[in-house]
From TrEMBL:
Gene: polA
Family: Belongs to the DNA polymerase type-A family.
Catalysed reactions listed for this entry: DNA(n) + a 2'-deoxyribonucleoside 5'-triphosphate = DNA(n+1) + diphosphate
Protein's job: In addition to polymerase activity, this DNA polymerase exhibits 3'-5' and 5'-3' exonuclease activity.
GO process terms (BP): DNA-templated DNA replication; double-strand break repair
Name of the protein in question: DNA polymerase I
């Protein structure tokens, strides 16, 4: 049970208190989340917006943690009319149009609630408020404490000593407790009279006009004087002044408002409060949904900390009850004991690939280096060795180094590259690794975003890992058999890794991923570790100059903006920008949002084309320069003492198989903009080397699409000798290649790549800035010329729907259970993934094979040149003196022969003293 922050008036049900019913107004809170989080920063690679789902889930996590409800439900509005629309035709008329990114997130949020164990409820003809009022009434009658999370003030009429409204404040995490005293203090009336006050004041959001000139203070004063709205109406002639006359003139509106404001407490529902007990969560379902929505792991961790998990999380554990824990017989080795233990339990021949040792390393790693604080080795018998590197004598060190390096003594590890870096920093090598449980799990379920050992043990073994019990630093108590709590936990991790590797090996055999693990991903770990250790040289002085230049440009943009407007204002404040753009300068209104009119980048770009004002362009320039300054600052912080930047490559992040890069992310430095190219100038050839060489694949996604579809016209376009996109435009538009202009070429290029990424007609229209109808016609014309592509794309989705997955040319699978989902949004999202995964995934496979071949050829050829980076489809090589021509030939050959497609794998090569000059 999670410890709860208690307020004086609350008691926790966990402490023997009465049941606590939590009711959430679904659309109200989802809209709050939508407008609180920027939609442009929350979305999947397939275009599904996720800010409302993420924000709603975050709010629910906080509520479950802080309030510990025993019963939970979310009430949702339905799209049809309610009884209030029948009473008043203008009810809720004039509301702003719902943002197009919002509706598709509602069913996703409802799915998440169901998976968590929370009941979703709605009722035809009624609003969510009425559902909540009915449940609150039932809960009070049943002796429950009731909490209502809603941004609708109508809920205040439900407040009693036993019912509190949690009303959103300025942020998602700010929920104010509106009990009877809080309502009285805020509005000057008791909760039972709040409906009277609202009837007088009106509600703009519901299109309910109140009495002109009468605000909450005047309304409260009248109610205090007369006691109720009914009495006020009876004695209407006693209300003096203009306000009194307005009241009498608008009495019908007030009475109508009062009728409409009243919440219904006897709606017929599919479930009563007794059936709203918080259920067991479907952890596997949550994982799948979070993976599809591409949520970061921190939200998942916070959610799992507060929800109950059912038996379903033990999927893969086999028959019978899940086994709790792991059996290990731990020896915490002191000086002189490591060699003895290894000779007894892990001698040559004692371990096999089917019965390997489990290895767990405690320490830190990243940016090409690491540190080992302790390590554990567990053999199939359960015997486990704990080692503190600081306590080893010469014989122990030699024996341990020999064991770790021995390719004939098989080992399994979780997060192989981290162990390589940490051990390598101590001068130890690591050989004989036959599985990495994180990589194996990634190949089995590439859509997952999290491959934590504890989670994998629950899912595949049905077991719980032992929690660490003391501080952040590993300590081993050599005076006691078994070591300290953390020492024992490390031995358990080694045992868990070993057991997990066996289960995952069987899983990969079923899913066709064994070859990828052993022939691609595991060998690549060693290559990536060497890339990270090497890093790439950076020109610090040049970066500092760029930083100053971008900072000065940002300041100049601020000054120019102030000159244009004639006063100072905060360029980073949306509220102040709205005032300046739409009120002071009276520019055309952009898309309506909750806080006014949007001032995002798209809106500013639109304003720049619609008006003669210089300001939108200046604001965009300020944002660009500020972002670039931040990028350069981030790079400067990562330059090591050796003058090189050591990024970290991740193999288990992108579901398509692509590598990603962090600390810093070198894959997001733009290459097609002048500024991006200037940043690339900062990456230079290092001391002792002659130049940098870059080699990348030309149009690899389209070549793969030609290969997979077998479309003859597409294959011929590659073999025509003409510019590929111009040749394709020629066929689509029925004109000679020489007549294809830049606009036609750009449209076809966007179309071709868009199809490779699962782009819809609407998405294409947004990308090209054309009407959806024109984009649809363009797509139809494209398919008329390249029908094989259309047939292939249709077949990919149909086949994936039948078997449940897509597959790359090397057999990398992407499982998409949502292809058969009843939820349209989830189904369409899965269809876009099905279109995208085989092409992007095949490109990822090919560049990985190319890396392995290039690295092996350089090693076998005795070259001093080395690969430094892989960025998307590009390799960056640091060339040693005198090796330029041979390395170029080697790289071109190995990359070009990585896979035999129906069209050639085009490889472009360039060289220079820095990354920019090496471009081609």
């Amino acid at each position: 049970m999670v410890t709860k922050r208690e307020t004086p008036e609350q008691t926790s049900p966990a402490d023997g208190g009465r049941p606590r019913l939590l009711l959430l107004d679904g659309h109200s809170m989802a809209f709050r989340a939508f407008f609180a989080l920027p939609v442009e920063k929350f979305g999947t690679s397939t275009g599904q917006s996720t800010n409302a789902v993420y924000g709603f889930a975050s709010m629910l996590v906080k509520l479950l943690r802080d309030e510990e409800p025993t019963h939970v439900a979310v009430a949702w509005d339905l799209s049809g009319p309610t009884f209030r629309d029948e009473v008043y035709e203008g009810y809720k008329g004039g509301r702003s149009e719902t943002p197009p990114e919002f509706p598709s997130q509602v069913p996703l949020t409802q799915d998440l609630m169901r998976l968590i164990g929370v009941t979703n409820l709605s009722a035809p003809g009624f609003e969510a408020d009425d559902v909540i009022a009915t449940l609150a009434h039932q809960g009070g009658a049943a002796g429950m404490e009731v909490l209502i999370a809603s941004g609708d003030r109508d809920a205040f009429q439900l407040v009693t000593e036993d019912c509190t409204v949690l009303y959103p404040g300025k942020s998602l995490s700010d929920l104010r407790r509106m009990d009877p005293d809080a309502v009285q203090d805020k509005y000057g009336v008791s909760p039972e009279r709040y409906r009277d006050l609202a009837a007088l004041v009106g509600e703009k959001a519901d299109n309910l006009p109140g009495v002109p000139g009468v605000g909450p203070k005047t309304a409260a004063k009248w109610i205090q004087k007369f006691g109720s709205l009914e009495e006020l109406v009876t004695r209407a002639d006693e209300v003096p002044g203009k306000a009194g006359q307005n009241f009498r003139d608008h009495l019908d509106d007030v009475l109508r408002n009062q009728r409409l404001n009243k919440l219904v407490t006897d709606v017929a529902l599919d479930a009563g409060v007794a059936e709203l007990a918080l259920g067991e969560a479907d952890r596997a379902g949550i994982d799948a949904l979070f993976d599809n929505l591409e949520f970061a792991s921190n939200l998942r961790e916070r959610l799992y900390a507060v929800i109950r998990s059912g038996r379903d999380e033990a999927e893969g554990a086999g028959d019978g009850e899940p086994v709790e824990g792991f059996e290990v017989d731990v020896t915490a080795a002191g000086t002189g004991q490591v060699a003895v233990w290894l000779a007894e339990h892990a001698a040559a021949g004692a371990l096999t690939e089917r019965a390997p040792a489990g290895l767990a390393v405690e320490g830190v790693w990243g940016q090409g280096t690491g540190r080992v604080d302790a390590l554990a080795v567990t053999v199939p018998s359960g015997a486990s060795l704990l080692v503190d590197p600081t306590l080893l004598d010469a014989a122990d060190t030699e024996a341990l180094a020999a064991f770790l390096a021995d390719a004939d003594r098989p080992k399994v590890v979780h997060e192989y590259k981290g162990a390589l870096l940490a051990l390598g920093a101590h001068g130890w090598s690591l050989g004989g690794v036959v599985s990495d449980s994180a990589l194996a799990a990634y190949l089995a379920q590439p859509g997952q975003r999290r491959f934590d050992l504890a989670d994998l043990c629950r899912k595949y073994l049905g077991r719980e890992l032992e929690e660490d019990t003391d501080g952040a630093q590993m300590t081993l108590d050599l005076g006691e058999e078994g070591g300290s709590g953390r020492g024992h936990a490390l031995a358990v991790r080694a045992a868990a890794t070993r057991d997990l590797a066996g289960v995952l090996a069987a899983e990969l055999d079923k899913r066709g991923g064994t070859h990828l693990l052993h022939e691609v991903e595991l060998p690549l770990v060693d290559v990536l570790a060497r890339l990270e250790r090497a890093g790439i040289a950076a020109d610090r002085e040049y970066l500092e100059g760029l930083q100053g230049e971008f900072a000065a440009a940002a300041r100049g943009a601020v000054e120019r903006a102030h000159e244009i407007v004639g006063r100072e204002f905060n360029l980073g404040s949306p509220k102040q920008l709205q005032q300046v753009l739409f009120e002071d300068l009276e520019l055309p209104k952009t898309k309506k949002i909750k806080s006014g009119y949007t001032t995002d980048a798209d809106a500013l770009a639109w304003l720049a084309t619609q008006t003669d004002s210089e300001l939108p362009g200046v604001l965009l320039h300020h944002r660009d320069q500020t972002k670039l300054r931040t990028t350069v600052e981030g790079l400067l912080k990562t330059v090591g003492d050796d003058g090189r930047i050591h990024t970290t490559f991740n193999q288990t992040v992108a579901a398509t198989g692509r590598l990603s890069s962090t600390d810093p992310n070198l894959q997001n430095i733009p290459v097609r903009t002048d500024v991006g190219r200037r940043i690339r100038r900062a990456f230079v050839v290092g001391a002792g080397f002659e130049e940098l060489l870059t080699a990348d694949y030309s149009q690899i996604e389209l070549r793969i699409m030609a290969h997979l579809s077998g479309e003859k016209a597409l294959i011929d376009a590659f073999n025509s000798g003409y510019d590929f996109h111009a040749q394709m435009a020629s066929q689509v538009f029925g004109i000679a290649v020489q007549e294809v202009d830049g606009e036609a070429r750009s449209k076809i290029k966007a179309m071709s790549y868009g199809l490779a990424y699962g782009l819809s007609a609407y998405g294409l229209s947004q990308q090209l800035g054309i009407e959806p109808a024109e984009a649809k016609k363009l797509m139809e014309d494209y398919f008329a010329s390249f029908g094989g592509v259309r047939d292939y794309l249709n077949e990919v989705v149909d086949q994936a729907r039948k078997v449940g997955y897509t597959e790359t040319i090397l057999g990398r699978r992407r499982y998409l259970p949502d292809l058969t989902s009843d939820n349209r949004q989830r189904r369409e999202m899965a269809e876009r993934m099905a279109l995208n995964a085989p092409i992007q995934g095949s490109a990822a496979d090919i560049i990985k094979v190319a890396m392995l071949q290039v690295d092996a050829a350089l090693t076998e050829g005795g070259f001093a040149s080395r690969v430094l980076l892989q960025v998307h489809d590009e390799l960056v090589v640091e060339v040693a003196p005198g090796e330029r021509e041979a390395v170029e030939n080697l790289v071109t050959h190995e990359m070009g022969s990585a896979y035999d497609l129906r069209v050639p794998l085009g490889v472009s090569v360039g060289s220079g003293q820095n990354w920019h000059d090496a471009a081609h």
